[in-house]
Structures are given as C-alpha cells and as structure tokens.
Amino acid sequence: MARKHSNGTPSPRHTTQRARHTALFSGQTITFCIFLCVLSVLVITALAPTTTGQEVVFPVNQQNDTKARSTVNATRVLNTTYFSFWGETTWWNSLTSQDAQTIKNQAKLLARTFRQNDLQSIRNFFGESFVEIKRVPVLLVPMKDKVSSYVVEQHETDAQQNDFYFHNQAIIYLNTRTFSHHNTQTFLSVGFSQIMLAQQQNSPTQGGEQQMIRTLIANVIPAIANNATYAEHYTKEFLQNPFSPHSDAWIVLFAYFMAHNIDQSVLTTFANSRFHTTETLNDALQQYNTTDTFQTLFERWNTILFVNGTLTETRQKQAYAFKNEVFKTLRIPTSKQHSLNQKTTVTINPYSSQWIQYTPSTLGISESNTALITIATREELLPYTIPYTTTSISGKKTLHSHTLTTPNESIPIRLFGTYILSASFFLPNATPRTRSITIHTHQHTPIQDGTIITSTDNTQLFVVKGNTKRLIPSLTVFESYQHLTLDVVQQVHPSVLDFYTQSFLIQQGNDPRVWEIDEQGTKHWLDMTPEQFEKSGRKWNHIFTVNNIELNWYTEGEPYSYTG
C-alpha cells in the first residue's frame, strides 16, 4: 500500500515511481500501434488490388489491336460501383497529367450516367431475370480505326499466370481513339448487357451463335430507345464493309430492325430464355403466334437493305423499315455482276448474304427470250427461299421470290434481254455455317414448236410446244410419227429442259375428248365442261395432239370428274 502524507496525498517518492511506469507503458503502446498501422498498410497493399495505378496483364484481340498483340499491360484508372476502368500502360503513361485527369473525369461521367439512366432501362427490359453484376473490367486500349468497342464474355488463361488478374472473367474493351465519342455511353451499356446475359445463363462462350445472339439482344435495348446517333455510327461502318466478320455493325442494324418489327414482349421472352440460340428465338416468336422465324426476319431485313427506296409498287412495305431517319439512305449494292452463259460458285459466310446481278449476254429480238438461273445447293439446306429483283428497260424494279425445293432448280426470267435488262438474286445465309451455292446461267432462245429435245443427264425424249413439253412414252410411239427421226433430236442443257413445264394432257385428231395421263401411264378422260376444265386449273395450251397409236398405247382408267 502506497504511503501517504498526513494530508492524504502520496509521497513524492512513490509518485515519481508511478509516473515512470506510466510513461514506459505509454511508449510501448504508441510503438505497438504504429507497428499495427504499418502492418495493416502492407497487408492491404498486398491483398487488395483496388489501388489506382496497379498494373496487370490483359488479353486483347489481335485482329483489333493496332500492334496485333495478344496481351497488354494495363494500369488501373478508376474504380466505380459497376465498372473498373483500366488503361493500356504505354498509352496511359504517354498522357499529360491534365489529359489523364480528363480521362478519369470522362470515366466517372460514364459510370454515373450508366447508374442513373442506362441501368434502369436494362432492368426494365429484362424484368425479374435481371442479374446484378459489379466491377466489370473496362480496358481502354488503342484499336484499329474501324473498331470502337468489343466484348469477350470469358477468357481462358493459364491459372499459374500470376500477373493476369482477370482470369476467366468477361471484359469490355473501348478504343482509346474514340473514348470521347458520344456513343461510348451506349458501347458501355451494350457491353454490360451482353456480359449480364452470359452470366445469367452461366454459359459464356468465346464466339459462335450464342455470342452473336447475345450481342443482338444487348443491342435491342438502344434500338428500343431509338438511339439515332448509335445507329448512324454503325450504318456508316456497315456500308463501308457489309457483313464483315470482324464487325458487329450488321448485328446492331439487325437489332434495330427486330426492335421495330417485333413486339417487345417477344424479345424480352427471348432474352430470358434458358439458352440463347436462333431456335429459342423461334420458340419465342411461336409463343406469340407470329409466322416469322430468325431465317425469315434475316431474309426480309436483307431484302429491304437492297431494295430500299427503289420499288415503286411496294414502297410502303419495303422502302422504309426503320423508325430512325438515318436509315433512309441505307442501301447495299450487288456484291458481283455477271453476264449469262457461265458457271458461278458463291461462298456465303455465316450470318451474311450476297446480291448477285446478271445482265444479258446479248440483247434479243424475240419477246420470248428467257434467262434460266439454275441454282445447285445441298439437300439439307432445302427449302431455300431466294428473293430477286428484275429491272425493266424503263428502270422499273420488281421484287420476286422463289423457294427452292430440289437440289437443282431453275428460275426462269422471261423477256430477258428484251424488256428485262438485269436480274439481281439474293443469297442469304442465316446460319453459323458457311454455305456454298453453284449457279449455272443460260440465255435461252425459244425452241420451235414440235422440236424433240433431250438433256445431257436425261435419256427421255420430249416434244416441245410453247413453254411446255410432253414425254414421248416409248420408241414405238416415237417411230409412229413418220416425220420424226433420232437425227432431229436436239440435246439441251438440263436447265433448259427444266424450264419447260411438263404437260400430261393429250387429244387425238378431231376427237373432242381430252385425256390426262397419270404417273402410272394410265389415261383418264376429263369428264367435265369447258368451264369446269378451266376452274380445275388446267390450261388449253397445255393440250398436245397425238396420233391414234399413241392414244391406244396408254391403258384407260376411270374418268376424272370436276369436284369443285
């Protein structure tokens, strides 16, 4: 117990001793606190890569990079709630302090505008399926002039590559050359939506159909908002190089077309599908009782791109498919121009198309001149719809459509070289695989009535009348016509033979009865009035006159009556 004076205060000797102990304890405490502070700073610096100025390695697309690099070093520029901005180190270090601050301020503005405006639009579009993601890496890196931005949904890297911080993570890339562009805000929003879609489905991809579809969905959002400047940017890019495999321009413009031609509920249903493929888009369209498919939408959009503003009679339907004024001048030219009487093999890249124009080899003097465009394609691609336009001598353009149902099929263009001066055929490919199509073209001069023809790949003999042909059933029948010999048989190209419609109607001499030959070679009397004959769809000019030997060659079956 401490000794005290009579007045109750501790003695000076004990007071000095306690002060000495207190001072010693206070010094130890301060030293320990300083130690903890230094240790904390070291731990935070080592473990938390959130400090501005930290440098890591990013992968980049060699095709887009100005120096064809596969990786670049990058320095952290700014952290925000939803984005982590990084700058390619060489570019970032070349900036003045004032320019660097300007970049930071622009990044802050982009992030704030996204949080206050764009994020709500994305939430509204996706509804309950919206996935909250934060700190998406955004790399500012010099790219080639025609590239403004791109997104890679996932990077596969060596796990032992310690200097690569964003292992297996999606990244948005922005071109430093266009970072100050007014469309950068939309680039950022679209990239965020695309990454959200990949994380929503938990199936990121390096490319292919799913990534294309996600880019398409992500671009529907600015399309719904009628962002005209964004559309104009990609319109210019698309016209410079239509359907470039290294550009998203066609996807952006197609997204605008879909947003303005499909109900938004269909697109939202599609966006929230379990998988993002053309098949799930077809399912969403079918769910809302539409007749469209991804294929038909793609074909219709491409047709509009070509005929925009050029068709008088269908202007309301074709000439203006978009709401934005910028699209009024959007029109792509034919990819190639050819004359007839040649063979052309066309390779069509995935999700692209080609318009090929044909002109007459010579200008004909007969109004019956016909161009035969024979298209050969694989059977698994059928049916294959080919839109085409014809241009008359007066400049009038007409849109047509032909659906191929066989691997080799001819499309006849009548009056070619007389009234029609050109024909442009559209070859679409709305699949992730390359298509190869072979086209044989011939300018066909009409064959005289009564000529016997055969083709190089067909041993059968046909007699021609007008635009029809009739099969001669046997050599016996052929020889019964004394004026016919095998020497007069004319061999023609298969496409020419295909041009003539086969008739199955015959009539003998002055007998008023008309007979029809079925597939088994049986003849049936058409027991009907002239009015019923016409109503049945049969044509008078398809009737061939035969001799008695040929008429009796066919077995007679039950008469055909008009059934209405």
From TrEMBL:
Residue spans crossing the bilayer: 21-48
Keyword Transmembrane helix: yes
Keywords: Membrane, Transmembrane, Transmembrane helix
Name of the featured protein: Uncharacterized protein
